[in-house]
Amino acid sequence: MMQEPLLPKIVKIKPEENIYEGVARLFDEIPISKDSIGVISGKEKGTTYNIAQDLCKNISAYKLEGPFPVEAATSEEGSRIAQIIQRKKYDLVLSVGGGTVEDTTKYAVQLASKPEKRVYFVHFATAVSHDGLISPRCSIKNKGYISLDVAPPIGLIIPYKIIQEAPYASITAAIGDVLGKFTAVKDWKYQELESFKEEIAFPLFLNSAKSMLKLIDEMEDKKIPAGATTSFYKERIVPEVVEACIKCGEGMIKNKSTLGASGSEHDLSHATDRLAPKPGRHGHQVALWTAFVMRLYDELADPIEDIRWETFLKKLEYMQMPVNSLQLGIESTIMVKVPEEALRLRKEERGRHNGVLERYVEKGFLLDSVTTAKILSEMKIV
User: Fold this and answer.
1) Which of 106, 242, 346, 361 has a C-alpha 20 to 30 A away from that of 98?
2) What digits encode the pLDDT tens for the residues 35-48?
3) Strand 64-69 to strand 92-97: parallel, antiparallel, or no bridges (unpaired)?
4) Helix, strand, coil share of the chain (percent; to 5)
5) What residue spans in the chain does CATH classification 1.20.1090.10 cover?
6) Mean pLDDT score of the chain, rounded to an integer?
7) 287: closest CA among 360, 374, 216, 198?
8) Phi, psi for 66 (deg, rounded to 5)
9) Which CATH superfamily is domain 168-379 in?
10) Model confidence at 145, in pLDDT bands (50, 70, 90)?
């Protein structure tokens, strides 16, 4: 019988609880050497750097060293942090921040680990803006963005008070990333890959996406305004978004891949990253391209069962998420080129399929910039 992959230990610290004690509690549960722990943070003197510095000063039960700031999620920064880890001979590091810090730490830990000495890391989330909190993947910029297989964290710390105070857009980006599972799962069902463990991954991904829709429906029914100022935001939205992101990560770990978590909507977002001088938030891009993918499935007479693209865009709008290229901050002339770029990129990567994009073209439809402009215009995205 195949052994289930180990999931990270998770400590959720309520707003009224002591953060330092919560961090120490998780360290207590990790059965590896903790003589000294390297702390990785965001830019020097920035918010996450200050939080990391505060943790170093106030957790007396363990020797925390740093923080060592990260400027960006690049291969160069990852290599620099890996050298620090090796020079200091850390067995365990603590990443403090959002996606940029965590992705860089994942990459650095992978580089610093050797067959005879593996390095582990724990992530202290200061914001939740994507579904990769515990995923076995990282996105690193190296002449464009690349997505790599890496080891997930062995521990995750969720300090709710800090996450509640993060920008509202970070939470809506996480919602967008999770909502993308509607099309991601359908893409991979279409591919019928033997390696896909449907009984494990599909429910985790789809139920997470459905939980986000249910949350938005409840807000609409009760006329609760979007934004970070309501008690509903702190008591319901933040915890439920965190839980949905964790469940998506569990699915990726159990499935040992991102199949079903990342489909055409993610391909389109990554292509946007390549083309746009200043891309939008990952989750916001994913959400907008999810609506586009839903529209393509409609044209193939194989619609998404749970929600139609028109309603989907209205849900995004209610949550004050971008519903057009202007709000996303990307020129319409770039948006119309994205599907062609996504197809081109995936042809370069063997073993990865485009799901609906390839299927759409195989059926004789065009996805050139002219056709894309027509579709996006009809959807009022451009």
Assistant:
1) 346
2) 899 999 999 989 99
3) unpaired
4) 55, 10, 35
5) 168-379
6) 92
7) 216
8) 125, -150
9) Dehydroquinate synthase-like - alpha domain (1.20.1090.10)
10) low
Measured on CA atoms in the order 329, 294, 300, 275, is the torsion positive or negative?
positive
Helix (H, G, I), strand (E, B) or coil at 139: strand
Extract the tokens encoding 323: 């519903």
β-bridge pairing 137-141 and 92-97: unpaired
Write the CATH number of the domain with boundaries 9-165. Answer: 3.40.50.1970
Tokens representing 72 are 């960006």
What's the CA gap between 210 and 327, in Å, rounded? 25
Residue 318 pLDDT grade (very low, low, confident, very high; cuts 50, 70, 90)? very high
Please choose, from the candidates 124, 235, 244, 232, the residue with its C-alpha nearest in 3D space to the C-alpha of residue 175: 244
Is residue 205 within 8 Å of residue 185, measured between CB atoms?
yes
Length of the chain: 382
User: Which amino acid is it at 334?
Assistant: I
Q: How far apart, in whole angstroms, are the C-alpha atoms of residue 96 and residue 90?
A: 16
How far CA 111 is from CA of 75, 149, 152, 253, in Å, comes to 10, 12, 14, 20
Measured between its terminal Cα atoms, the distance across the chain in Å is 52
Supply the DSSP symbol for 234: I
Given a cut of 80, is residue 3 above it in pLDDT?
Answer: no
Per-residue pLDDT reduced to its tens digit, 237-285: 999 999 999 999 999 998 888 888 999 999 999 999 999 999 999 999 9
Strands 120-125, 92-97: pairing kind = parallel
Residue intervals in the chain for CATH 3.40.50.1970: 9-165
List C-alpha distances in Å: 273 to 55, 149, 330, 338. 34, 19, 10, 9
